[in-house]
Amino acid sequence: MDADIPVAHQRLMDEVVIFGDRGSLPSRVRSLYPLYGLLGIAYVFIFILCVVSFSRVHAISEKAEALKSEVGADFDQLYLKAQNTSSRVDAIELDLSSLKSEAQKPSSRVKAIGSDVSSLKLQVSVLSSQFLALEKAVEIETPCGFLWKQFEDHCYFFYKGELNWMDAKVMCEAKNATLAVITSAREQNFLSSRTDNERYWIGLSDLNKEGEWEWIDGTDYNSSYKFWKTDEPNNFDRSEDCAHLWSMGEWNDVHCTYVCNAICERQL
């Protein structure tokens, strides 16, 4: 059958030549033109598909390479972070092991501190004994006692610290005294000369009834000496019920919860 194809082809070509000279082609030849046209279009379409496919494959290949590079960089970073984290974990474990080892050993520093504390306690005990001996010696020389000041037949203790009026009252009572009661200009001058314009509680208040001032030892207020600042007492904010010495030793009413120094007084 294969041998018949060249023969048929030759016959066809002969007919083309013969009819070409006559100016017309046989119908069998003319019927092959559409087939050849379709084949040409098919070849062109296949070529275009190849070109497009190649372009797409090339683009996909470039994207794959870029993704590979990016993933590779991220992987390298993750690997480095993992290595750093592992190193830090190893260091922490080493520190924990070292701390555990130190904790299990007797601490020479703790022992040294304990020895220092014992030494300080002994020194404090010695100093306390010396202080008591000094206080007794001073009491022999001064009738009022250590840190007390004498004026006429009364002794005064000037407490430096922050106390409200009630706490100051309790503090003085613990010393077998009361907050100072001022009954003369001489006593006022004595106290003012030792307060240095600082505030000191005295034993004067109107806690029992507003406007009716009373001395803590029962001394009559109305008939006794007074040394209020100008326009005082004014009961500012309707809650100033306790008195203290202020600038120049003048008296001022203030809230009883205010904190300042205090003067204690007792009879010699």
Produce a short descriptive summary.
Residues 151-265 form the C-type lectin domain. It contains 6 helices and 8 strands, in the order H-H-H-H-E-E-H-E-H-E-E-E-E-E.
Protein model, in words:
With about 270 residues, this protein is α+β, with helices and mostly antiparallel strands. The chain has six helices and eight strands. The protein has helices at about 5-20, 25-30, 35-105, 110-140, 165-175, 185-195; strands at about 150, 155-165, 180, 200-205, 215, 240-245, 250-255, 260-265. Strands 1, 2, 3, 4, 5, 6, 7 and 8 form an eight-stranded mixed sheet that branches. The mean pLDDT is about 80.
Structural class: alpha+beta
| Oligomeric state | single chain
How many individual β-strands? Answer: 8
Overall pLDDT metric: 79
Number of helices: 6
Largest sheet: 8 strands, mixed
Query: How many distinct folded domains?
Result: 3
Which stretches are low in confidence, meaning pLDDT under 50 for 5 or more residues running? Answer: none
CATH topology of the largest domain: Mannose-Binding Protein A, Chain A
Amino-to-carboxy terminus distance: 157 Å
Strand content: 5-15%
Round the Cα radius of gyration to an integer and report it: 58 Å
> How would you spell out the order of helices and strands?
HHHHEEHEHEEEEE
CATH superfamily of the largest domain: Mannose-Binding Protein A, subunit A
Q: Helix content range of the residues, please?
A: 55-70%
